[in-house]
């Protein structure tokens, strides 16, 4: 457990210390209120031991606190029973910050984390005093502070990887012999104040802990009554001012919070909500007071020097040599120098947490942190006759800083505001952004919310450019298909602006080239997995702008187009750069507010280009369209344009909000549900060009006339449909616009229609050509199996049925084909076994009826009369057709009764009659009545329903047994 000025490990104390998230994830123990203040001085501590800390009793002014046994906490491996933080502001300096904590270990899962205590402090102005460290076990106290070896003093520099050193020390304790049920109690004080605050008191105390739920939080401030120390707390969270008294020249203020839920770091929680757990203290009267303080700090770093003058002169000479000695060019060169030639590194020990280094120091060491760079840039620009001033900002809290108490602790970063001569609009420029490039106007800092200009006379926070005004990216994506039948190409050209360009430059400089390439194509590869990258991504600087252009090329692959209805090609598309910023995290609806990433403007143009007429030319006014959605969070505008050989969508997304308020999650999600289908959809292209489509309509009319005149013979309405589908398939194949797999689908369609017309030889050719284009298509293998059966090639039928089932095991059609092939090929045991399995696994009543009929026939041919009669009827209380056929088989209905059942609404059904007579013939064959079988087979063929399987089977059987 850490004690420090805040849970953030100086995250809001030192400028440029931006790792708030890491600090928030640590467990903290804030303080607690106490009785009356004791104005007496605290007792002297023992001399600091070699370990770097001392041990002494708690100061006399501390008001002892204990856990509240009436508070019930939820179960957790560690429960924090008490967080007690008491501060005494001494009139003579040397502020005491006393912390006292009690935690309970309730489960073995809490032993590791619960055993660790750490105290961070800055030895340049603070000293550490331990008061107690003990374990309570079964009512007995075990003093751990006596063992000095338990306390390790570490110099860890946790921010070193972020190019910062602060000199802070960590007193680390790892308790030994800790057991479930133990209660740990410890107390320590930090004595001293950072001199950078000119003797004014500032602090921030957290009232929750990540270690576990907290029973009682007590925060007490004891200060001279003459000192105006303001405080701010969130009463809505249950933080209450429990006591405020003034006595004997001292003011005591106590805050309490009870039954506090365990803190869990949520990266999606807006900063204002995250910081609500804090109690803030500040002796600064207002923002004017803070601005005057900051101005004094930066003034100390602003003294003119020969080195600074020499650097300014070098910049001026460089601008003159380029023939562009303008304020804008001098500003650009100065910004380049500070951002690139002065590397980022911070030394933030003691007062240096906020005090900028002098220009001479920074120029000599050639490094500095945010405040050093801001001061150098401002002073350099003054030498170049350009108005500039430092600005304090919060890179974490951003706009939420305006709700904070006026204090230096409200800020964690420093930039500069610059006004070029002859302009009224200031530029907000950041000297730490070393990946920037281009004109100063394109390097604007967006989305920092409110900032405080470090200048005397400034009385309020300044509003800086909001993130919603930033242009983030603009993309032109083009899908080109010179011929629909061939693979197309996809080209994406994106210009990334501002922060996105800087992130990309940083990635280019730090990532292996292969990993960078994967990152650049990641979204496209996820959207279109079949696309294959062609060549490497091309990354180019955009002249004069803080922007990068990235060009990517892909092949679409042969299977970009789907062909779901065998009439139109369908290609999926996604407006990627518009949909990505709108993505929601994978979680259930939130009850808390949620931070939205990446506010700003995104432009995306998607264009389809064809080398042949793909669409009918739009009529006047019909070639354009639009979609608009504007709400509290975003505005989406889509514009559509259509031509004979192109389709285009121009999209603009303005993500205007940076957070979704609590309770608004569902409303926001509903808005996304409305627009997302617009951002990911499909383009439909006719399989026939407009002229070819007109020719097809004419051919269809001619076919209809031929059928009416009788020159084209049809027996059933289905045969009319078959001839229509065959004609359409022929025209689609002749058009030669289809890619391989859609062409295979049409060839399969053609083969099926030829089979239905009783032309299996033509069907075989179509299926075989389709298989060459799509060899692993289960439907084609299944169709070729049925075709082989019609051609009386039973072994071939079984082979293709096996292949179809290997590709699509759940398809019942090939299984029946295999049954029929084995039946006619006299492989009766195999047919029987498969039929029994189908009847056990198939839920469809109709299939159970047909399966039962065939099981009856197979059983009869095997001589299993009992098995034939044992075939079970469908389970339906009123079985539909062909149940009457099974009844006929088993002698429970005569032929006339079956014929009546075959009719529907007293109308003849040729298809059913074809089936009935075929199966009656099979029963007659089983009864060894050839004459009756021949008669029934002729009646089956007389129906003329060539599209039925039973028709071709009847023809086959009649040829086998002979006509007489």
Number of domains: 5
Derived structural class: alpha+beta
Report the C-alpha radius of gyration, rounded: 42 Å
Distance linking N and C termini: 102 Å
**What composes the largest sheet?**
9 strands, mixed
Strand content: 15-25%
CATH architecture of the largest domain: Sandwich
Low-confidence segments, ≥5 residues, pLDDT <50?
A: 1-13, 17-50
CATH fold-type name of the largest domain:
Immunoglobulin-like
Q: What's the rounded overall pLDDT mean?
A: 89
Number of strands: 38
Which outline best applies?
Answer: elongated
Helix content: 25-40%
Question: What is the CATH class designation of the largest domain?
Answer: Mainly Beta
Count of alpha and pi helical runs:
27
Helices and strands in order:
Blueprint: E1 2-3, H1 20-24, E2 54-55, E3 78-88, E4 96-105, H2 111-114, E5 116-121, E6 127-137, E7 140-143, E8 151-154, E9 164-165, E10 169-174, E11 183-191, E12 202-206, E13 214-224, E14 230-232, E15 240-247, E16 250-260, H3 271-274, E17 278-282, H4 287-300, H5 306-321, H6 327-341, E18 343-344, E19 346-347, H7 359-365, E20 367-368, H8 370-383, E21 387-393, E22 413-419, E23 427-429, E24 450-453, E25 462-463, E26 471-481, E27 489-497, H9 499-510, H10 513-527, E28 532-533, E29 538-541, E30 547-555, E31 568-574, H11 576-579, E32 594-595, E33 600-610, E34 624-630, E35 634-643, E36 646-655, E37 659-660, H12 665-679, E38 680-686, H13 690-709, H14 717-735, H15 740-756, H16 760-773, H17 778-790, H18 794-807, H19 813-824, H20 828-841, H21 845-861, H22 865-869, H23 883-889, H24 895-902, H25 910-926, H26 930-942, H27 949-961
Parallel strand pairs: 1-5, 2-6, 3-13, 9-19, 18-20, 26-33
Antiparallel strand pairs: 3-4, 4-11, 5-10, 6-7, 6-11, 8-10, 12-17, 13-16, 14-17, 15-16, 21-22, 21-24, 22-23, 24-25, 26-27, 27-30, 28-30, 29-30, 31-38, 32-37, 33-36, 34-35, 35-36
Helix pairs in contact: 5-6, 5-8, 6-8, 13-14, 14-15, 15-16, 15-17, 16-17, 17-18, 17-19, 18-19, 19-20, 20-21, 21-23, 21-25, 23-24, 24-25, 25-26, 25-27, 26-27
């Amino acid at each position: 457990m850490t004690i420090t000025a805040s849970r953030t490990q100086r995250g809001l104390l030192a400028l440029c210390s931006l790792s708030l998230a890491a600090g928030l994830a640590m467990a903290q123990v804030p303080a607690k209120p106490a009785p009356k203040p004791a104005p007496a001085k605290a007792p002297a501590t023992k001399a600091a031991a070699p370990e770097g800390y001392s041990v002494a009793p708690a100061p006399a002014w501390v008001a002892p606190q204990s856990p509240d046994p009436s508070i019930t906490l939820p179960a957790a491996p560690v429960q924090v029973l008490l967080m007690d933080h008491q501060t005494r502001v001494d009139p003579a300096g040397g502020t005491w910050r006393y912390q006292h904590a009690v935690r309970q270990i309730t489960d073995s899962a809490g032993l590791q984390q619960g055993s660790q205590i750490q105290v961070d402090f800055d030895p340049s102005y603070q000293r550490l005093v331990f008061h107690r460290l003990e374990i309570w076990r079964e009512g007995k106290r075990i003093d751990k502070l006596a063992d000095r070896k338990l306390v390790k003093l570490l110099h860890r520099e946790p921010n070193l990887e972020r190019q910062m050193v602060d000199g802070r020390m960590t007193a680390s304790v790892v308790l030994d012999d800790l057991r479930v049920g133990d209660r740990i109690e410890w107390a320590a004080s930090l004595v001293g104040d950072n001199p950078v605050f000119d003797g004014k008191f500032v602090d921030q105390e957290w009232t929750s802990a990540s270690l576990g739920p907290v029973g009682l939080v007590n925060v007490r401030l004891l200060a001279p009554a003459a000192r105006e120390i303001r405080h701010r707390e969130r009463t809505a969270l249950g933080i209450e001012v429990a006591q405020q008294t003034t006595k004997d020249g001292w003011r005591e203020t106590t805050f309490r919070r009870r039954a506090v839920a365990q803190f869990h770091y949520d990266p999606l929680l807006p900063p204002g909500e995250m910081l609500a757990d804090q109690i803030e203290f500040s002796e600064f009267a207002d923002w004017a007071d803070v601005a005057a303080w900051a101005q004094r700090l930066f003034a100390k770093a602003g003294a003119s020097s020969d080195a600074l003058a020499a650097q300014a002169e070098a910049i001026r000479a460089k601008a003159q040599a380029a023939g562009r000695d303008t304020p804008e060019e001098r500003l650009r060169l100065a910004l380049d120098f500070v951002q690139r030639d002065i590397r980022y590194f911070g030394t933030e020990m003691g007062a240096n947490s906020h005090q900028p280094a002098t220009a001479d120091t920074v120029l000599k060491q050639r490094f500095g942190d945010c405040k050093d760079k801001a001061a150098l840039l401002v002073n350099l620009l003054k030498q170049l006759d350009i108005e500039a001033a430092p600005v304090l900002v919060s890179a974490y809290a951003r706009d939420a800083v305006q709700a904070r108490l006026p204090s230096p602790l409200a800020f964690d970063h420093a930039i500069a505001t610059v006004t070029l001569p002859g302009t009224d609009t200031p530029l907000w420029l950041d000297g730490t952004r070393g990946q920037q490039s281009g004109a100063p106007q394109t390097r604007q800092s967006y989305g920092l919310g409110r900032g405080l200009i470090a200048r005397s006379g400034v009385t309020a926070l300044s509003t800086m450019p909001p993130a919603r005004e930033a242009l983030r990216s603009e993309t032109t994506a083009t899908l080109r298909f010179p011929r629909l039948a061939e693979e197309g190409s996809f080209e994406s050209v994106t210009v990334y602006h501002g922060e996105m360009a800087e992130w990309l430059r940083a990635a280019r400089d730090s990532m292996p080239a292969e990993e960078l390439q994967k990152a650049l194509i990641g979204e496209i590869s996820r959207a279109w997995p079949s696309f294959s990258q062609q060549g490497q991504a091309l990354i180019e600087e955009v002249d004069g702008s803080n922007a990068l252009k990235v060009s990517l090329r892909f092949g679409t692959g042969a299977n970009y187009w789907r062909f779901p209805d065998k009439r139109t090609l369908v290609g999926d598309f996604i407006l990627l750069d518009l949909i990505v910023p709108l993505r929601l995290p994978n979680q259930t609806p939130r009850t808390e507010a949620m931070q939205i990433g990446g506010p700003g403007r995104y432009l995306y143009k998607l264009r389809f280009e064809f080398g042949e007429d793909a669409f009918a030319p739009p009529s006047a006014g019909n070639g354009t369209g639009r979609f608009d959605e504007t709400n509290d969070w975003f505005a989406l505008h889509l514009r559509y344009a259509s031509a004979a050989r192109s389709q285009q969508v121009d999209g603009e997304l303005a993500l205007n909000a940076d957070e979704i308020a609590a309770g608004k999650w569902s409303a926001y999600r509903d808005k996304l549900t409305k627009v997302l289908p617009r951002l990911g959809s499909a383009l439909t292209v006719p399989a026939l060009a407009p002229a070819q489509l007109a020719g097809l309509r004419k051919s269809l009319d001619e076919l209809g006339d031929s059928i009416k005149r009788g020159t084209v013979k049809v027996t059933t309405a289905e045969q009319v449909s078959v001839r229509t589908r065959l004609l359409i398939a022929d025209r689609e194949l002749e058009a030669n616009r289809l890619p391989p797999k859609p062409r295979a689908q049409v060839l399969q369609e053609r083969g099926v229609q030829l089979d239905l017309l009783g032309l299996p030889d033509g069907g075989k050719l179509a299926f075989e050509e389709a298989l060459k284009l799509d060899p692993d298509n289960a439907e084609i293998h299944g169709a070729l199996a049925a075709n082989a059966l019609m051609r009386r090639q039973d072994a071939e039928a079984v082979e293709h049925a096996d292949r179809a089932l290997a590709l699509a095991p759940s398809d019942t059609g090939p299984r029946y084909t295999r049954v029929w092939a084995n039946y006619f090929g006299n492989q009766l045991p195999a047919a029987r076994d498969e039929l029994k399995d189908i009847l056990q696994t198939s839920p469809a009543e109709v299939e159970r009826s047909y399966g039962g009929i065939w099981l009856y026939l197979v059983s009869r041919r095997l001589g299993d009369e009992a098995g034939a009669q044992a075939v079970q009827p469908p389970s339906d209380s009123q079985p539909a057709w062909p149940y009457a056929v099974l009844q006929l088989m088993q002698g429970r209905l005569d032929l006339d009764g079956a014929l009546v059942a075959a009719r529907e609404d007293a109308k003849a059904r040729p298809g059913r009659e074809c089936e009935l007579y075929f199966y009656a013939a099979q029963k007659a064959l089983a009864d060894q009545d050839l004459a009756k079988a021949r008669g029934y087979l002729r009646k089956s063929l007389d129906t003329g329903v060539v599209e039925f399987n039973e028709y071709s089977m009847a023809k086959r059987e009649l040829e086998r047994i002979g006509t007489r």
